[in-house]
Amino acid sequence: RIIIFMLAALLVSANLSAAPTANLTTGVARLSASAHSIDYGAEAHSQIYEAQYGINPNLGASLEVARISDVDGRTYIGTLYFQRPFDISQAGARLSTAGYAGITHLSVEDNFDDSESNTGFTLGLIADYSICPELTAYGRAGIAFLDETLWTLDAGIRYEVRPQWFLSLGYRDYEVGGSSLGGFLAGATYQF
Question: What pLDDT is stored for residue 139 in this prediction?
Answer without folding.
Answer: 93
